[in-house]
Specification:
The protein has 2 helices and 6 strands. It is of the alpha+beta class. It has a single domain (3-101), classed as Conserved Hypothetical Protein Mth637, Chain: A, CATH 3.30.1200. Strands 1, 2, 3, 4, 5 and 6 form a 6-stranded mixed sheet that branches. Strand 1 and strand 2 form a beta hairpin. The two termini are 15 Å apart.
């Protein structure tokens, strides 16, 4: 899966579907351009940043990491989001891989 460990954390891409029945992570998908993204769904609507906040909260919960340490680094108005998690990038990458393996 495409993740980038940076000095102060981890960056990864998510394809977000708002207005879903449940908040959940569906797994990894390889896009037509070869880029891998994590598919996620949230119940929130894509208005006033509600879906963006919901996806950050979802990944914070999945990784047992404070939501205040997650932010969007791109894709605020797109389905493909670039998410940054502040912390030990290696540890966060291992936790994310483990979570994705077990869904």
């Amino acid at each position: 899966m495409a993740m980038e460990i940076v000095p102060d954390g981890l960056i990864f891409h998510v394809r977000l579907t708002p207005r879903a029945a449940h908040d959940r992570v569906d797994g990894v998908e390889t896009r037509d351009d070869g880029r891998q993204v994590i598919n996620a769904r949230v119940r929130a609507v894509p208005e006033d940043g509600k879906a963006n906040k919901a996806v950050l909260k979802l990944f914070a919960k999945c990784l047992s990491h404070p939501v205040g340490r997650l932010s969007l680094r791109g894709g605020q108005k797109s389905r493909i989001k670039k998410i940054f998690i502040e912390g030990d990038g290696g540890d966060l990458a291992a936790r994310l891989k483990c979570y994705l393996k077990n869904i």
